[in-house]
Amino acid sequence: MKYEVIEDEGFNYIEAGKGEPLVLLHGLMGELSNWEPAIDMFKEHYHVLVPILPIYELPILTLGVKSLAKYVHKFIKFKKLKQVVLVGNSLGGHVGLVMTTTHQEAVKALVLTGSSGLYENAFGGSFPRRESYDYIREKVAFTFYDPAVATKEMVDEVYKSVNDRSRVIRILALAKSAIRHNMAKELSKITIPVSLIWGKQDKVTPPEVAEEFHQLLPNSELNWVDQCGHAPMMERPEIFNEYLNKFLNRVLLK
After folding, report:
1. Burial, 215: exposed, middle or buried (Cβ in 10 Å; 0-12, 13-18, 19+)?
2. How far apart are CA 145 and CA 228, in angstroms?
3. Does residue 124 carry a pLDDT above 50?
4. What is the DSSP string of 40-64?
5. pTM for the whole thing?
6. Distance CA 77, CA 62 (A)
7. What is the rounded distance in angstroms from the CA atom of residue 194 to the CA atom of residue 197?
8. Which among 73, 84, 122, 238 is placed 20 to 30 Å from 249, CA to CA?
9. How big is the chain by its Cα radius of gyration, in Å?
10. Contact 56, 170 (CB under 8 A)
């Protein structure tokens, strides 16, 4: 990771560029580096911030999608940002949705890519063979259209996390919180512009999930990324960035 992580007032984050603020939110097993191609492109014209979600720091009894959304709101207030564009992948998208329903005045626009919030086919409620490196490698590769995107470093990091007892308890608690917190009845309240950028071959949050989001979000657009799985900003960064750039130009530069 070529960007330095800033530690300040209990927040850990990357910050680059100046302009309209973009806040990028990673997924449950995601890393800040997932957003590197997006940071590279958008720091030229935008104020890009990527907070580390405190999945392993928040009290276990309060850990959930709502507590992470509160954390993101606190981060936005800490940085004295008035209105932001939230861009979230997987769990990060779900956190962005909750943050938007509770503080829509703080969000100018929302971008969801492989977001949970309606349905996801992730690791499920357990890791039945977490001691097996090959099993974990298969699970990580399942995330992508091209299994080669699942690098050894990525698999090593997930393997380490799911074999750390304190970490895996938190991962499973958060995954269950995301599954329980279905947002279908709340999405009509989100009236700001929303861009859905979705992998056509996403097996974690399949295409029909994107179509349901598009139907339920009143001011949304749906963009497909072909030959792409659950993380378009990693697997097809050029196409993801192109869609995001067009959306930002439309909603911010009117």
Report:
1. exposed
2. 5
3. no
4. HHHTTTEEEEEEPP-TTTS-TTT-S
5. 0.94
6. 21
7. 10
8. 73
9. 17
10. yes
In one-letter notation, the amino acid at residue 136 is: I
Three-state DSSP at 225 gives: strand
Looking at this protein, which amino acid is placed at residue 157? E
Distance CA 218, CA 223 (A): 16
The rounded Cα 122 to chain-centroid distance in angstroms is 14
Handedness of CA 112, 88, 153, 135 (dihedral sign): negative
pLDDT per residue as tens digits for the range 1-17 = 689 999 999 999 999 99
- H-type alpha helices, the chain: 36-42, 65-78, 91-102, 133-141, 152-162, 165-180, 207-216, 232-235, 237-252
Q: What amino acid occupies position 191?
A: T
Name 129's bridge partners: none
Say if CB 57 and CB 174 are below 8 A apart. Answer: no
SS3 20: strand
**Residue 168 structure tokens:** 């895996």
Alpha helices in 103-150 (DSSP H): 133-141
Task: Provide φ and ψ at 2, rounded to 5°.
Answer: -90, -10
Rounded to the nearest 5 degrees, what angle is found at the Cα of 24, between the Cα atoms of 9 and 35?
110
Q: Is the dihedral of CA 14, 20, 22, 23 positive or negative?
A: positive
Q: Is residue 112 within 8 Å of 225, Cβ to Cβ? A: no
Report d(CA 230, CA 28) in Å as an integer.
Answer: 12
